[in-house]
Amino acid sequence: MNAPSSGDGERLAAEPPAASTSGRPADSPGRPAGLPETVPLGSPSGGSLPLLSPPGGSLPFASSPRPTRPRATARSMYRLHRLLEPNAGYRWLVARLDRSPRLRRLFTAAEKSVKKQVFGCRMCAQCALPVTGYACPMTCPKQLRNGPCGGVGADGSCEVYPEMPCVWVMGFERASGHGRSADLQLLQRPIDHRLWEQSSWIRYWQGHDEDLWTRE
């Protein structure tokens, strides 16, 4: 057997590492252990979508969420929202939390626990619940904040998880039942991914939610 020439060695060294099924080098960094490389689609044709993570790290929403049916009625949430509107008492509370990082962490953890149980909250910190019938759009597997995708089933089922209802169908039913269907026509602005895991309640009381959506 002939030994490889120096030219062969240079060519081998220049070749890229073997690619995985997703088209990414098999040894690329940033993928958490056990995270699948594709997300299956629930359409009749089957298939899958690549699930990517950024170089050198992972996103807090890297795993595909599942549509969540809220455990609280829309009526009760609309009423509660009126009680949570910003006022002097909430502004005092926010100022107190800002002075104590420990209390702020505890408050945020409590918010996360409650909202995850009730809405499947993923703590994006830019809450759209008041204008989506209190059905969280971030539990959409595609995390669509401006209405459903084109794959919603004739029965209102989710394309990715066909055994579950589309979160936007749930939102429309809940909002329209209280004369709030026009809320779903608001244009949701892109979220700031730097704010993940922060408290949306604190941000709301600070007035940061005023430009989350627009009618134009």
Describe the structure.
There is one protein chain. The protein is mainly α and 216 residues long. It has a domain at 69-216. The protein is built from six helices and four strands, in the order αββααααβαβ. The chain has helices at 6-14, 74-83, 88-99, 101-119, 167-176, 200-205, and strands spanning 38-40, 48-50, 187-188, 213-214. The chain has a two-stranded antiparallel sheet with strand order 1-2. A two-stranded antiparallel sheet has the order 3-4. The longest helix has 19 residues, at 101-119. The chain is globular and about 50 Å long. The model is unreliable at 1-35, 41-45 and 49-61 (pLDDT under 50).
Structural class: mainly alpha
Radius of gyration: 22 Å
| Poorly predicted tracts of residues | 1-35, 41-45, 49-61
What is the first-to-last residue Cα distance?
72 Å
Estimate the mean pLDDT confidence.
81
> How do the SSEs run, as a string of H and E?
HEEHHHHEHE
Shape: globular
What portion of residues is helical? 25-40%
Largest sheet: 2 strands, antiparallel
Range of strand content: under 5%
Oligomer: single chain
Total E-strand runs:
4
Number of helices: 6
Walk across the major sheet and give the strand order.
1-2
Describe, in short, the structure shown.
The chain is mainly alpha-helical. It has helices spanning 6-14, 74-83, 88-99, 101-119, 167-176, 200-205, and strands at 38-40, 48-50, 187-188, 213-214. 31% of the residues lie in helices and 5% in strands.
